[in-house]
Amino acid sequence: MTLAPSESAPMPEPLPAPKPAPMPIALLMLCHEPPEALAPVWQWPWLSDPAVRLYVHYDAARSEPEFARLRASVPQGLPVTFLTDRVRGHWGGYGLVEATQRLMACALADPAFQPAYLQLLSGSCMPMRPLAALREFLTRRCGMEFIQSVDVSVEPWVRSGLEAERFRFWHPFDFKRQRPLFEAAVWLQRKLKVWREPPEGLRPRLGSQWFCITRETAAAVLQGLARPDWRRYFERCWIPDEMAIQTLVAQACPSAFIAGHNLTYLEFDEHGQPLVLENGHGDHLRRQPFFFARKIAPEAAALRAELIERQRPHRPDAPGEAPGTRLDPELDLGWFEQAGRPTGHYQRFLARAQLQPQARSHLGTSTDTWRGLMLHAHRPYVVLIGSAPGHVRAVAAAARARLPGWPLFDHVFAPGALDPVADGLPLHGLQPTLRARRDLDPAAFLHELVHLDDAQPTAFALDPAVESWARGFIVWDRQALVIDLDPPGLSPAQRGSAALRGMGSTHRYEPPRQMIAALAARHWMPTEFFAEALREGKLLCTVQPLSATPPEPLATALAPLLQALRDGAAAVDAWAWYPPEAAARAWLDGDESALPPLPHERQGSAR
Amino acid sequence: MNAPLSGCVILSARRSGARVLQRLLAPLLPLPSAGSEPFVWHHPLGQVSRQFHQADPALAPARVLLDEALARPVFFHHNHDIESGEFNLFVLDGLVRAGYRVLRVQRDPAERLVSACVAALLEAPEAADIARWRARLQAGGSVPEPDEALLRQGVRQDLAYERWFAEQLAARPLPVRTLRHEALFRAGTAVLGTFDQALAFAGGGDRRARVDDAALLRQLLSGAHHSAGLRAWSPALARAHAIIVDEVAKHA
What we know:
The structure holds 2 protein chains of 2 kinds. By secondary structure, chain A is α/β, with parallel strands linked by helices.
């Protein structure tokens, strides 16, 4: 406030107010993605602002070479600081709080930077408005803490599952890795009516992990987390990243200064499944009165590019226009009144999805505009899967030779490339140049794909180990018949070694680490995505081995194709890709000479 | 025995946000409220202005009316830029005679003038009007091109009038406290301190006993019209904005 010098000297002030320096903002990023997946972050226009700095905590689950690769990928001159003192953050464990604490401490201790606000992000978050809009928003509300901090004794926060039990019970076991022990501990404590009291002076609050808080409050939170008794308390709570900082902010701030919402758009359904943002969600995001979007699908490259454009303060001038005349819609601040409150579009979608209960947990691709053009597709199609991509391609090629002209394709949804027919000419006009269209609107691409021929249903290969829009969609599409081409009776070691050796041909992001970890833990492997969905009953498509007969009317429509696939599979030597059990185990143990070269390696081909 | 409480007035130009301040202060003051812009002819003190502008040259009836109105201390808000200079001097002298305190609300002139220009051009003084115009402009509607010469002249006249009014106010023995629009609407939670000091100056008691921080913040941090934001949807309004900023920079 500006006051006159005294009441007896009532000279009005000079009119123009000095322009303040831009508000410094620290972005704190918790990430665990492969270094290549984080490359788009370095393109954010926000990072070119001198009053913005990015502090990155890279999960300790990632190896040192990966960390070195990530650091090396940052272009010179970007204001990015990496925490070298990394911790491992398990879902539901204290590691995420610890990592956040270190990020906050690093940002506050930076002598060259005094941030007014600290914003927590993840590797799948992105700013979706110009920095100037965020600054204007924070300037108008300077001193407010943008965080959810809900007293669950007054109002519920968790939609389903444990709520007050998160902090009233002791939680020494990891929910994901020690699930039976976790459940037993909860059951026992409920039976014994355990009531764990918080330390003196603490009143537990819950809320979303993501926040944007002031420097002063961040300092107070750090002081709280440094207290051994408080830390011990939070360490034995469940999902402390949704509690510790939220509790300490409420401890440090008058409730009037806590906005009760954060600035990151994220939504969940009633089962706690998050909405994954795909390429088609750009318009939906434009309507949301938030500054950051979460969580963006790894393959949604077009959406990332669109959001990067939206971060720019002024759009590039069009030809013929004078510089600076292009308008930036973000000057319109009218939507600030709704900040933090998502529009009803998504919840309406979920309400409609109740009509199809099996599909409702698959977010973003069920019956609605969310699944784009595929809403109108009622044609069956065949998806060929297998642990060894090379074997799947070989069977497809053999079947193509028996059914010339049939729309039967290789891995058309492989990230980073579109190679419809690896061993031949373009079929039905499907060419590698359509890749951009596929990535922009995969639903429209799939719609086109399944309607290529009026009489013959389309078939294409899909690598089940690779996360993609198509994989997520197909599992919930009743029209899809998924045929597993793996020979029957394979052991995990055989399938795992076949998959690991085939990787690189259809993968941009290599999941071998996940494969090896799954093999070691005897957990399901990424290649078993559909089998796992089948086991859990979380699918609508039909999954079966090649030898099985599909239900009518699919069986009649697909009879020639299935016969050609069976003949092709019989003609291909599957054991060239799937080694014997002993050899597979020896190879997995590191004996490179245990297995003969793959067929394409023997031929000296790139494949 | 306590001294009788003197009246209090908010003086501002339009589009300064003073009306919000008046609305929030009025119920907290031990003074009857005469509202905002009371000298508009159909408002409570409209007779004063009517008599001033229509009656005899001696202005005796208008002065009597004004002094009668101000004699019973009240709290009101007067947009000085909608009245003539003569009438404003007449009011200022009346305030001096009645011993009023003045809360002056000021805003960055370029922002104020852009907001005033948009509101006047589009006849959109209310939030609902702004929302309607936003939808219209987004759908491809247009606004007439601004007359640059006229706009520049308007900016010069406004700035000169503001300067003149500031001099006249300073020349009178009135206790004045100046509040900036930016300190009220762009300072975040610091507005609570600003508001409480303004309340104390205007003669109010303990604000927290009647309105808690959260309720006050909700009032102060929301409800803005953002009329200037409409320039994002109209090249004509964007050009008007550029002209105003340029002219203000020349004469500020």
